[in-house]
Amino acid sequence: MMQPEDIKQMIETGLPGARVSVTGDGHHFEAEVVAREFAGKGMLQRHQLVYRTLGTKMGNEIHALSLRTLAPDE
Amino acid sequence: MNIQDKIRQQLSSDRIVLYMKGTPQFPQCGFSAKAAQMLGACGAKFTSYDILSDPEMRQGLKEYSHWPTFPQLYVNGELVGGCDIMIELYQKGELQKLVTRAQG
């Protein structure tokens, strides 16, 4: 079973320098991600950037992930 | 017809399309229920497809959109996003505008 800490680590690896906090129960998770990559991007692209760091886990082991995505100055 | 062509065809035949778990009347997941509800509240006439009854479509959509979860909302053939994005747009009144424009 995935732990919030595993997800945090995967996002941090995929988006170096991002500030990430994750909570969850093993199936449903919530994450807040602050990354400079998000600046100037819309929500769709921000979410896609985060999903990419989680690869095939997203939608499989991770049933649901509520995302809040912010650029550093937001 | 392969699955990617089938998706393209579905998206070109209807302006507002929701791929979800279950149906608007009998949703099988809280996020899908919420998505259908928000569209209803905006007065959207939308077409929905139950991806739980079609595993090939479910996988095909993930590849089509590079978006791994459901629900997925498409307006005029373009992915708008999942439940989180819909909530954010809804709260800003932008989901309503998107629907009105698509149906106008």
Number of helices of chain A: 2
H and E order of chain A? HEEHE
Structural class of chain A: alpha+beta
Helix content of chain A: 25-40%
Q: In total, how many beta strands of chain B?
A: 4
Largest sheet of chain B: 4 strands, mixed
| Portion in strands of chain B | 15-25%
Can you give the mean pLDDT of chain B?
A: 96
The gross shape of chain A turns out to be globular
Low-pLDDT residue intervals, each spanning 5 or more residues of chain A: none
User: Largest interface here, residues on each chain?
Assistant: A-B, 15 and 15 residues
Structural class of chain B: alpha+beta
Low-confidence runs of chain B: none
Number of helices of chain B: 5
Which word captures the global form of chain B?
globular
Largest sheet of chain A: 3 strands, mixed
- Quaternary class: heterodimer
Q: State Rg of chain A.
A: 11 Å
Helices and strands, with pairings:
The complex is a heterodimer of chains A (74) and B (104).
Chain A: H1 4-14, E1 19-24, E2 28-34, H2 43-54, E3 64-70
Parallel strand pairs in A: 2-3
Antiparallel strand pairs in A: 1-2
Helix pairs in contact in A: 1-2
Chain B: H1 3-13, E1 16-20, H2 30-41, E2 47-50, H3 55-65, E3 72-75, E4 78-81, H4 83-91, H5 94-103
Parallel strand pairs in B: 1-2
Antiparallel strand pairs in B: 1-3, 3-4
Helix pairs in contact in B: 2-4
